[in-house]
Structures are given as structure tokens and as C-alpha cells.
Specification:
The complex is a heterotrimer of chains A (243), B (249) and C (305). Helix content of chain B is 73%, strand content 0%. Chain B has 249 residues and is an all-alpha fold. Chain B is globular. Chain C has helices at 26-31, 33-45, 56-64, 76-84, 117-129, 143-154, 172-182, 190-200, 235-246, 248-256, 281-293, 300-303; strands spanning 5-6, 18-25, 47-54, 70-73, 88-103, 135-137, 165-167, 186-189, 207-210, 217-225, 258-259, 262-263, 266-267. Chain C starts with a strand and ends with a helix. The chains are: A alpha/beta (243), B mainly alpha (249), C alpha+beta (305). The interface between A and B is medium-sized, with 30 and 27 residues.
């Protein structure tokens, strides 16, 4: 059953087609990787999924609901998702405030917020970090806060845009572990955009290969990696073609 | 008395006036604080949201609006005073309000000067916030009002600076409040206008004394700002944490 | 309103002419008399007459520091003190103007029919106390203010710290405008009043309600600064100005000056007793001598001595 459906979506930036005719289903409870070189349109696709952008053509359905509605209703839908960007983008305040922000926006009571934030921080391995200033964190810690910020909202869909691109291996594995857990323990559907093929292999159930704005291939992870249907996919996976 | 003696005696007199609690001086000081304080608060309360609005929205003529606000930041106070005088005088369009020669008129004139400062600095502070943060706020489900509030909080040090600068300008202003206030003893006499009067009377020692009190007030407010600024900068910035600085100082 | 030097020269870059700096009051400058006298003085003595626009207290302070060449004010007590301190060597009453009590047209204190200025003030105080009216004072220790306080004290009143009495702490024009806004009474020199009234017309909602009392006469003292104490001042030109002001020509010019068709100043050299002031005979005789030594004529009413 699809949580998110992208149907014949096109996106243009300054006249250039950044995404062409994308048809993609995101199944409930799965971890889907979107792979492809930089500039392929991965970020744009994720932003469209997070309803931060409107498609120029085509439609996106979230949980069966047509998302081509006014901003007010999109906001309601957006509150069921969480997104982690490539750069942590934390606010100049404490870790607690950063993680709690989404809850405060939704008007949760104070006690509830405190509990949820504590749980989220523990979940990402940042127990006791609540009072630290965001600006004092290392890159890995900051990104984990970013993740906690998304998780604390208990979203149905978690979108990650190259979340570990700038991190050291230890932090990469830490975050991957958390993503895996949240998917298996809490059933959160995950879409992760990455150009780290090994990471995609490690994490995902299914893989979608995006190349120059086009969805070249989608399939079960094992299938795509071992028996890619498209030659282009094969070239990319073998590392022979980088862009 | 040669010049420096007067400064020295002025210092002595200032201490004397402060500690003796001379009622006139107390009254004048309180009026200055009240007028400039309210002007700053109201000017800020109006100017900051205005600045946020301009900074966060795109609309036709945005560049023009920003230029106008920046120009208004340098409004000559005495001109503001003159315009309000013409408006508020009994023969003027707003004469029926009977505001002329009241502290309220002084507040009005000064907040007119603080408002563009608050708006201008807000525009600059908010515009230089990392656009990714804006995305984050929206992604977290913030509505436009919440988004604005979040960004204003993020820019808070810059905004506070704007208020302190605005207050400093207001409390040392003399032309506008002289014209619309009338320097009436017990009603509209502030530190700056009192200094003018004392100077006119040749009472330089007292004038310097009041000037020292004025300086002390301005210094106090600035000290508070510096403390706040330093506290917010004391945390170190992470090395690989790629975030542009909020505002260049 | 710190000391501002007002240049009314047609030749601003002229350095060949000798410059005179007069320390005088805002009322004097506002009346326009000095502008009127300047071309005559400048031509006669090949000079550049300039003046400082100050409050009375400041004018005296400036003169005491030797920052001006000559002093022209209207506050007898302080003029005498100035001489007594040795800062000034010669002083003469050169002219007087008069003060008027102005107020709202409906005259709530009913001073129109008062017998004298003192009684008028008493009536204003009474009306003020019963909440019917207000009085706005210069409140700046100026010559005008000093005269006002003299009248209050002659009436046996101390008007300060009463709700109906306001102190503006400013010059005459501003004080008048404040009075108009508040529909209050105030004491003004005739010159400033006439000028402002002719400029603002109906916008100035006040009228002269009382005038003509001897207590409302405002004599001006011209004081020569001590050249020994202030060696850097232009004492030569200052003395020439003194001679000019007490001469027939100067006194006649003072008399002929008009504001909106009204005579504001009245020559007073050698007329001290006539206007109720102590005799200045010695001083007058000194200047008659100096005038003749400089080839200048004294005013006709003085010639007989």
C-alpha cells in the first residue's frame, strides 16, 4: 500500500526541466533509497515529497490525499512528515529548543514536549545533550539533533537528503543504525537520498535510480544492485560513470 | 572658570545631584527614561514586525521600500519635530488631539525616529539568516506567523542591538522634543532640553552634571547590550558546521 | 542653542574690516534692531558688526570669558554685578523697550481693566488658582524672566510650583507660541510680540491685554569690557560702538526702528531719571566728552549739559 505516490511529475527551474515524468510509489513501512549522482534532482524530488515545492505538471498523493491544495492544507499534511537536510541547519539556541521546535509549532503541552524530546535525544544517542548550545556541537552531533528533531514528531514519513554526506564513518553508521531502528521498531516509512551506494545497499528495501532528472530504474534493492535492468544503472553502479 | 575646571566641577555636581536625590533632577531623568523608553518599545513593536514582513516576502517595489526605510533611518530629528509641530498645533490638522507640549507628543516624535531604525535593522538581520533555516521552519509545519516568530527569535541579538541603538538615539535627542514638548518644567523637560536651558543660562557646571547623568544612562543601556551579545557568542562554533554567520559586525 | 554667530555681511570673506562681536540676548536679536543698525555702523566705522544669540545668563558668561567684545543686555542687577566685579569699565543705559502682558482674547483673569502690572499679575494668579487660566513664564533666568519675577515679588506672590504656572525654559518666541496653544497669559517684550503676531496673524491666538505701566519698562545696558582684563578683545572697535550707540545718530536710529509699523525701542541715553532709574550723570558726562573727542554729536536732549 502506498504512503506516497508521485505521478507523472515534472519540475522546472528557470525553464530547465529538473525532473521529468517521475512516477514513483513509496510503500508503507519500507526504506527507499533514491540514488544518483549530484545534480540528478534528488533534493528537488525530496522537497516535492515534503511539499516544500509544487510540481509543474503531475500530481503527488500523500496517504491517498491529493496534495495539490492550498498552503494551509499542505501544512497539515506536512506535519505528518519529517525531513532531515544535508546540513543540520540548527537554530541558535539549545539542543532542547531545536528538537522541541516542531512540537511547539503544533501546540503540544509542555510536559509532553519534555518527555518526547528526552526520548528522541536518547534514541539518537545524545542523552544529556538537551541543555547544550547548538552552536557548540560537532557536525555529527548536530546532524543527530537534526534527526531527533524530525523523529520527535513521530512522522509517518521520514525524508533524508544525503544525511551523512559530510560525516565521519562512526557518525555515518550511528545515524544509519537509528534510521534502521526507527523503521523496524516504529514502522516509519523512510525515503533516503544518497550518493553513497554502499549506504543504499546497507539500508534500503528498494532503490530508485535518478539520472539527469529521469527515473531510470526502480526495484528491490538486491535486484537493482546485482541485476540492474538498465545499462545506465549498471554503469553508475560500477562506478564507471559519475555524472 | 577655564574649561576643564567646569568639567571637573560638573562631575562633582553630578554625583551630588544623584545622591542627594534632587527632586527636579529625578523628575527630569524619569521623564527622559519614560519618553525614550516608551518610544523605543513602541517603535520597536511596530518596526520589527514591519521589517520582518519586508524581509520575508517578495513583492514588487521591495527594493524601493527597503531604500525608503534605510533613508528614514537617518531622518533629522529636528525635522521630525517640526513636522509634528505643524500637525499637532492648534491650527494644524491634528490640533484637536491637544497633544502639543505633552510628553505624549515627545514619545510620538521619538518613536517616529526609532521605527525606521528598528525596521531597517530587522530587515538586515532577518535577510542574512541562513535560508535553510527558513526551509526547516516550513518543513516542520510552521505557518507564516510561526515562521516569522522563529526567524525573529533567531535574529534576536541583531534586533536587540537595534533597540539599544534606537534608545541611545532617542535619549540623546533634543531638537524634536524641544519643539513638540516645549521644555515645560515638571511636564516636558527632559535631560537634553534641560541641558540646553542651563547652557543658555550660562550655568555650565549644572549643564555638564546633567550631561554626565545622560552619559551614564546611555552607558548603562549599552553595557547591558554588550553583556547579552557576549553571552550569546560565548559558545564556540563547530568546525564543520556549515552555517553562515547571522550578521556581519 | 549654543552660541551661534550670525553673519549679516554682504562680504563674507572680508578680512580687512575690523570685526565686532556683541554678546547680547535672544530678545534683542529677535527684534531685528541690530540688523537695522548694522549697515550704518559698518559704513561709518568701516567695520563688521556681528552678534551672538544667547540667553541673558549665557551672554554675561560669554562676556566674562572675553569671548565677545562688548555686552548689551537688559538685566540691571546682573549688569551692576558685572561692573562691580571689574569685568566691565563703563555702563550706560542706551535704550528701553517695554513689555506687554498678552493672553487669550476672552481675558479670563480680567486684566484689561487692571490699574497696574502688579495688579494684573495678582488677578492672573487668582484666576489661575481657581483653575480658570494659566501663565507661561520664560523660566530661563533671562532679563525678561528677571523682570517678570520682580513683578511677582512686588505683588507678594511666588507663583512657582503652582499648577497654573508653567516654566518653558526657552526663548520669547517659543514661550509665546506655547502660551497660544495653552491659551495662557505671558509677559513678552513688545518687539518679539509684534514680530510674531505679524508673521503668524490669526494662527497666534493671543492679544495684548495690558500695557503702558512704568514697571513694564525694560532698559538696556551697554557695557564696555575691561581692556586690561581682556587684552585680546577688540576694545577699540567696542568703544566706537559705544560712541555710536550714544551719539545723536545712533539714538535717532534706535528711535526710528519699526516692526510692523510700530516703534519698539526708545532712546534712553541721558534719560535715566526720566524712566525711573538712578542717575547716570557721571557716565553721561564721560561720554559727551568722548563723543566730542571723536568728532561725534551727542543726542539733542543731552546737549544742554
Amino acid at each position: 500500500m502506498s504512503l506516497l505516490e508521485v505521478v507523472n511529475v515534472y519540475k522546472l527551474f528557470v525553464g530547465r526541466e529538473v525532473l521529468k515524468n517521475i512516477c514513483l510509489d513509496v510503500r508503507r513501512g519500507e526504506i527507499l533509497s533514491v540514488i544518483g549522482p549530484s545534480g540528478a534532482g534528488k533534493t528537488t524530488l525530496l522537497k516535492l515529497m515534503n511539499l516544500l515545492l509544487y510540481p509543474d505538471r503531475g500530481k503527488i498523493f500523500f496517504d491517498g490525499v491529493d496534495t495539490e491544495v492550498d498552503e494551509k492544507r499542505r501544512r497539515v499534511l506536512r506535519r505528518e512528515m519529517g525531513m532531515v537536510f544535508q546540513h543540520p541547519a540548527l537554530f541558535d539556541t539549545t539542543v532542547f529548543n531545536n528538537v522541541a521546535l516542531g512540537l511547539m509549532i503544533r501546540g503540544f503541552p509542555k510536559k509532553e514536549i519534555e518527555k518526547r524530546v528526552e526520548d528522541a535525544l536518547n534514541y539518537v544517542g545524545l542523552k544529556g545533550f538537551a541543555k547544550r548550545k547548538a552552536s557548540s556541537l560537532s557536525a555529527g552531533e548536530a546532524q543527530r539533533v537534526s534527526l531527533a528533531r524530525a523523529l520527535v514528531l513521530e512522522p509517518k514519513l521520514l525524508l533524508l537528503d544525503e544525511p551523512t554526506a559530510n560525516l565521519d564513518p562512526a557518525n555515518v553508521l550511528q545515524i544509519e543504525e537509528t534510521v534502521r531502528r526507527v523503521n523496524s521498531e516504529k514502522g516509519v516509512t523512510v525515503v533516503i537520498a544518497t550518493h553513497n551506494l554502499l549506504q543504499a545497499k546497507r539500508l534500503s528495501d528498494r532503490v530508485a535510480f535518478l539520472w539527469m532528472g529521469e527515473l531510470v530504474e526502480v526495484g528491490e534493492s538486491k535486484e537493482v544492485f546485482e541485476n540492474p535492468k538498465s545499462e545506465r544503472t549498471a554503469l553508475y553502479l560500477s562506478g564507471k560513470v559519475v555524472y | 572658570m577655564a574649561g576643564w575646571e567646569e568639567v571637573f566641577y560638573g562631575l562633582v555636581k553630578a554625583v551630588e545631584l544623584i545622591f542627594s536625590g534632587d527632586p527636579d533632577v529625578v523628575q527630569i531623568t524619569i521623564l527622559s527614561l519614560r519618553v525614550s523608553g516608551l518610544a523605543t518599545l513602541i517603535g520597536g513593536a511596530l518596526g520589527i514586525p514591519l521589517g520582518a514582513l519586508v524581509a520575508l516576502r517578495t513583492f514588487r517595489g521591495k527594493t524601493l521600500v527597503v531604500s525608503v526605510i534605510n533613508t528614514l533611518m537617518g531622518l533629522p530629528p529636528v525635522l521630525v519635530g517640526l513636522v509634528y509641530y505643524i500637525l499637532l498645533s492648534s491650527t494644524g490638522p491634528l490640533g484637536f488631539l491637544r497633544l502639543l507640549y505633552t510628553p505624549e507628543a515627545m514619545i510620538l516624535a521619538q518613536l517616529t525616529m526609532v521605527l525606521p531604525i528598528a525596521a531597517g535593522v530587522t530587515i538586515s538581520s532577518v535577510s542574512t539568516i541562513d535560508p535553510k533555516l527558513r526551509e526547516v521552519a516550513v518543513s516542520l509545519g510552521a505557518n507564516p506567523l510561526q515562521e516569522t516568530a522563529i526567524l525573529l527569535w533567531e535574529a534576536r541579538v541583531g534586533l536587540l542591538t537595534a533597540l539599544v541603538v534606537g534608545f541611545g538615539a532617542a535619549i540623546s535627542e533634543v531638537g524634536a522634543i524641544m519643539i513638540v514638548g516645549g521644555n515645560l518644567l515638571g511636564y516636558t523637560r527632559a535631560l537634553t532640553t534641560a541641558i540646553v536651558l542651563l547652557t543658555n543660562q550660562g550655568e555650565f557646571v549644572e549643564a555638564i552634571a546633567l550631561g554626565i547623568i545622560l552619559l551614564a544612562l546611555a552607558f548603562l543601556v549599552n553595557a547591558i547590550l554588550t553583556l547579552i551579545q557576549m553571552r550569546s557568542r560565548s559558545s564556540l562554533f563547530a568546525q564543520t558546521y556549515t552555517r553562515e554567520p547571522q550578521f556581519k559586525r | 542653542m549654543t552660541a551661534s554667530i550670525v553673519f549679516f555681511t554682504t562680504n563674507p570673506t572680508s578680512t580687512t574690516r575690523s570685526r565686532l562681536v556683541i554678546a547680547t540676548t535672544t530678545s534683542t536679536v529677535d527684534s531685528g534692531l541690530l540688523d537695522y543698525l548694522k549697515p550704518y555702523f559698518d559704513k561709518r566705522f568701516d567695520a563688521d558688526m556681528t552678534w551672538l544669540y544667547l540667553g541673558t545668563g549665557q551672554a554675561i558668561a560669554v562676556a566674562s570669558r572675553g569671548d565677545a567684545d562688548i555686552l548689551l543686555v537688559h538685566d540691571r542687577a546682573r549688569e551692576d554685578a558685572f561692573l562691580a566685579s571689574g569685568n566691565g569699565t563703563h555702563r550706560a543705559t542706551v535704550m528701553y523697550n517695554d513689555f506687554v502682558i498678552i493672553g487669550p482674547a476672552n481675558d479670563p483673569a480680567n486684566i484689561r481693566g487692571a490699574g497696574g502690572a502688579v495688579e494684573a499679575f495678582k488677578r492672573i494668579a487668582e484666576a489661575g488658582r481657581s483653575g480658570k487660566t494659566l501663565f507661561v513664564s520664560r523660566g530661563d533666568n533671562s532679563g525678561t524672566h528677571a523682570l517678570e519675577m520682580k513683578i511677582w515679588s512686588a505683588a507678594g506672590l511666588d507663583p512657582r510650583e503652582r499648577g497654573w504656572y508653567m516654566e518653558a525654559g526657552q526663548g520669547m518666541s517659543s514661550t509665546i507660541r506655547i502660551s497660544s496653544e495653552k491659551q495662557a497669559y505671558t509677559l513678552s517684550d513688545r518687539g518679539t510680540w509684534v514680530k510674531l503676531k505679524s508673521a503668524l496673524g490669526e494662527a497666534l491666538r493671543l492679544q495684548i491685554l495690558f500695557e503702558g505701566d512704568k514697571t513694564l519698562l525694560n532698559p538696556y545696558g551697554l557695557i564696555l569690557l575691561n581692556p586690561v582684563k581682556y587684552p585680546k578683545i577688540n576694545s577699540e572697535l567696542a568703544e566706537k560702538f559705544f560712541l555710536f550707540m550714544v551719539s545723536k545718530e545712533g539714538q535717532r536710529l534706535i528711535e526710528s526702528y519699526r516692526v510692523a509699523g510700530e516703534q519698539i525701542f526708545f532712546p534712553a541715553f541721558g534719560k535715566a531719571e526720566d524712566i525711573g532709574l538712578p542717575s547716570e550723570e557721571e557716565e553721561v558726562r564721560y561720554w559727551i566728552k568722548r563723543l566730542s573727542e571723536n568728532g561725534l554729536e551727542p543726542p539733542p536732549w543731552v546737549k544742554q549739559r
